[in-house]
Write a structure and sequence with these properties.
The protein has 17 helices and 23 strands. Helix 6 crosses helix 14. A hairpin with a 7-residue loop joins strand 12 (371-373) and strand 13 (381-385). It is α+β, with helices and mostly antiparallel strands and 545 residues long. The strands form 5 sheets. An 8-stranded antiparallel β-sheet has the order 20-19-18-17-16-23-22-21. Strands 5-4-15-14-13-12-11 form a 7-stranded antiparallel β-sheet, with helices on both faces. The longest helix has 18 residues, at 416-433.
Length: 545
């Protein structure tokens, strides 16, 4: 029983665990304070939650547990460094709780505020143009509280993997067995790094939590930090468990959501960099974005961070991570992550392998680098975890939505009907109310002074909320400032341009662009969404998100 109890936690961190209750109490009735969990010194016996309790991660106890993993099990910290926390400018948008939308399936409409409660939300924060327009807490969560991110963790692992690929440190076409000889005889031996990243490996591995013989239980047992039962001779770490997973067919044909892929990628990251996942995340991101708190991972019995579901974070720091990704890896004027890595995640994966997996509520979606891509008109993509953990990024609306929750049903299919339309309703509202429509995602240039652009050119501009202008002028990067006013007035000032030679035709196009930008005097966005920049002499530049 002791080992089964840790299995309950680890398994529910993976996507798709079953409901813990058929008729759960409301979000108000199940609030940890209302329930009286762990209150008093000591708390009463019937209000005590222990790591060894078989139901410590069952609803409604999980509403307390999600904020207290560090008290219950071994962890490894993600250092935030000595610097001050970065500012999150406040610009509250009144009326968001009153926004109404229709849940998927044509149910009766509901408000944003009603959805907050219906999904047992612990915290929800919305950034628009990098400014906090909505922030609300409930349950066990407060502004400085750490909360389990569950399988949202996988997307952080995938992000780091895509970064190493973009930097050339990790070959996406390499065979896993070549990079990690211990996995040569496992299912991962002849899988490519890309197939692991995109979860198109084919494993003899079931994550059917209703089946007591499913392999997910064996993988979870391997990650247990509790003493094994008498006579147990199975794997005692995630590393050992991965070596025993066998191949179930041809890799690369079908998307298959399997938690061991994330653990295998975590091993690849550690082997490539010589650092465990928590140290790698601290070095590359956490110490550099002004996180408010040290984050942490739960670990197995030998201290291996759980790459598939062990990350714990504050809501505000989760939003900061989302903003870094929205800004293509740029933070306060410094390129922390290669933009190519973010662009590849943002493009999404192949739709055919995803469609074969049968996610009926997610038509047109895809999966790449352990991120879920919606395929919608805005190209929104997300990190997702059981019980409602979400990081939703909309590049067109320039919106980041971070949610931490303790929904009684683990699978996202239970909250998607009242979550996905809510995200789209708030982004539509923010765009309609936007007084600064230039801000946001990249404006990809379509025409320069009536001459069009050379085929496959990827020149773009991006207007930032702090007045900075960044972009790429065909061959070279540019930096500057923008100032806008009433009636579409706009001034652009270039302050820095890299100087790299390229093909003569592209250089000529770039020179025309750089000559036009400082002469811009006004702008407009037409009904098709195209941005028009005008000079006083009537020259134009057009771009589109």
């Amino acid at each position: 029983m002791a080992c089964l109890r840790i299995v309950v936690l680890v398994s529910t961190l993976a996507l798709g665990a079953p409901s813990q209750a058929q008729s759960p109490p409301s979000t108000q009735a199940s609030d940890p304070r209302a329930m009286g969990w762990m209150q008093g010194f000591p708390p009463p016996a019937d209000k005590t939650i222990r790591f060894t309790d078989p139901d410590y991660f069952s609803f409604p106890k999980l509403r307390w547990t999600v904020c207290h993993f560090r008290e219950l099990m071994p962890t490894a910290g993600v250092d935030r460094g000595p610097g001050a926390a970065s500012a999150l400018p406040q610009a509250p948008e009144p009326g968001i709780d009153a926004l109404r939308f229709t849940p998927l399936g044509g149910q009766a409409s509901m408000s944003w505020g009603e959805a907050f409660d219906a999904n047992h939300t612990d915290g929800l924060l919305v950034l628009h143009h990098g400014r906090v327009v909505y922030e609300r807490y409930a349950g066990c969560l407060g502004p400085h509280t750490l909360h389990g991110a569950m399988s949202l963790t996988k997307s952080i692992t995938g992000l780091l993997g895509e970064v190493l690929v973009a930097e050339g440190a990790l070959d996406e076409n390499a065979r896993v067995g070549t990079l990690i000889p211990q996995l040569q005889d496992s299912a991962f031996g002849d899988a490519s790094v890309r197939q692991v990243l995109d979860m198109t490996t084919t494993l003899q591995f079931s994550e059917d939590y209703a089946d007591p013989n499913a392999e997910v239980w064996q993988h979870a047992q391997a990650g247990s930090t509790l003493p094994p039962p008498a006579g147990y001779t199975g794997p005692r770490s995630y590393y050992e468990s991965l070596q025993q997973i066998r191949k179930g067919g041809e890799h690369g044909q079908v998307f298959g959501y399997k938690t061991p892929n994330a653990d295998a990628l975590g091993w690849l990251l550690a082997r490539t960099t010589g650092k465990p996942l928590n140290e790698l995340l601290a070095e590359r991101i956490w110490r550099r974005i002004g996180a408010e708190r040290e984050a942490f991972y739960t670990v197995d019995a030998i201290g291996t961070p759980f790459a598939g579901g062990g990350f714990n974070v504050t809501l505000r720091d989760l939003a900061r991570l989302g903003q870094l990704i929205l800004q293509q890896g740029e933070w306060q004027g410094v390129q922390l992550l290669p933009s190519a890595a973010i662009e590849r995640i943002q493009r999404g994966g192949e739709r055919a392998p995803f469609a074969r997996a049968g996610y009926a509520q997610l038509p047109g979606w895809s999966y790449r680098a352990m991120w879920w891509h919606s395929g919608d008109a805005h190209g929104a993509f997300s990190a997702r975890g059981v019980h409602g953990q979400t990081l939703w990024i909309d590049p067109v609306a320039d919106v980041v939505i971070a949610r931490l929750a303790s929904h009684p049903v683990a699978a996202n299919a239970a909250n998607d009907p009242t979550s996905l339309p809510a995200w789209r309703a708030v982004t539509k509202h923010l765009m309609a109310q936007d007084q600064t429509p230039l801000l946001g995602g990249q404006w990809v240039i379509e025409d320069v002074a009536g001459a069009g652009v050379i085929d496959r050119t990827r020149a773009f501009l991006r207007f930032l909320a702090d007045g900075r202008l960044v972009g790429h002028a065909t061959c070279n990067g540019l930096r500057g400032h923008h100032t806008s006013g009433a009636r579409g007035r706009l001034r652009l000032r270039l302050t820095g341009i890299t100087r790299k030679r390229c093909a003569p035709a592209l250089m000529h196009q770039e020179e025309r662009l750089l000559a036009l930008l400082p002469r811009v005097t006004r702008y407009r966005i037409d009904d098709s969404g195209a941005l028009w920049l005008y000079t006083a002499a009537g020259k134009t530049l057009t771009a589109r998100r």
